[in-house]
Amino acid sequence: MSRFLRLVARDLRLSLRQGSDATIAVMFFVLCVVLFPFGVGPEPNILARIAAGVIWVAALLASLLSLERLFQTDYEDGSLELLSLSPLPLEAAVLAKTLAHWLVTGVPLIVAAPLLAVLLNMDAQGFGVLVLTLTLGTPILSLIGAIGAALTLGARRGGVLLSLLILPLYIPVLIFGAGAIDAAINGLTPRPHLLLLAGILAAALPLAPWAGAAALRQAVE
Amino acid sequence: MPVFAGSELTCLRGDRLVFTGLEFRIAPGGALVLLGPNGSGKSSLLRVMAGLLKPLRGTLGWDGVSVADDPDAHRAQVQYVGHLDAVKPVLTAAENLAFWAALAGAADPAANARAALDRLGVPHIAGVPGRYLSAGQKRRLNLARLLAAPATLWLLDEPTVALDRAAIALFEGLIAEHRAQGGMVVLSTHTDIATPGGENLHLDEFAPYADEEAGDEEVGDEYEEEGAGP
Question: What InterPro entries is this protein classified in (chain A) (predicted)?
Answer without folding.
Answer: Cyt_c_biogenesis_CcmB, Cyt_c_CcmB_bac
